[in-house]
Specification:
The chain is mainly alpha-helical. Among the domains are: 16-52; 54-122, Arc Repressor Mutant, subunit A. It has helices at 3-6, 21-52, 57-71, 78-85, 89-101, 123-144, 149-174; strands at residues 105-110, 113-121. It has a two-stranded antiparallel ribbon with strand order 1-2. α4 crosses α5 (89-101). Residues 24-164 form the HTH marR-type domain. Residues 1-24 are annotated as: Disordered. InterPro entries: HTH_MarR-typ, MarR/SlyA-like, WH-like_DNA-bd_sf, WH_DNA-bd_sf. It comes from Rhodococcoides kroppenstedtii. This is Winged helix-turn-helix transcriptional regulator.
Length: 175
């Protein structure tokens, strides 16, 4: 085997050096395709959820970003959320007020900086989300039931790497 054959493709430092690069490229292509398909299904579910609960696409995107920020331990302020969503300050204020009135989110002071306000899911909004997405959780658990924990650990690492790559690319193109 030549040195060239043992080099990882696409800047990925791991992989079996005994596998031909074309196999690695095929795996990466299949993962990218799977991720696009999962994103499309997620979008379809989000649209159904939004339609059932009178949420616009921006409302649903806001809820998703609030949850991701909260789970990651970095709750988001209205201004930060507006930047992520590409909304003006006035549009963001309107969105936040609607979402608070509907019970989906609440404002609260940031415990690390009392001058800052953060957005969190409110209990009525969480209940609506649990009611809708709970059955999806059952489907996901059933779909993964026969997969060994080592596969789930590997999938978690792959999703983490893909998310980090997408975030890095976003930083590059967003300036």
């Amino acid at each position: 085997m030549s040195v060239q054959d043992s080099r990882p493709t696409a800047g990925v430092p791991h992989g079996d050096p005994a596998e031909p690069p074309s196999h690695r490229a095929e795996l990466e292509s299949r993962i990218a395709s799977d991720m696009r398909a999962m994103t499309a299904e997620s979008d379809r579910l989000g649209r159904v959820f939004g339609a059932q609960h009178s949420l616009s696409a921006n409302d649903f995107r806001a809820l998703l970003h609030i949850m991701v920020a909260d789970v990651s331990g970095r709750p988001v302020s209205p201004g930060e959320l507006g930047s992520v969503l590409g909304l003006s300050s006035a549009a963001m204020t309107y969105l936040v007020e609607r979402m608070i009135t509907s019970g989906h989110i609440r404002r609260e002071p940031d415990t690390r900086d009392r001058r800052r306000v953060i957005l969190r899911y409110d209990e009525p909004g969480m209940e609506v989300a649990r009611e809708f997405f709970g059955p999806l959780g059952v489907h996901v658990r059933d779909a993964m039931a026969d997969l060994p924990d080592s596969d789930l650990d590997a999938a978690h690492r792959v999703f983490g790497a893909l998310t980090a790559a997408m975030a890095a690319y976003h930083r590059e193109i967003a300036g």
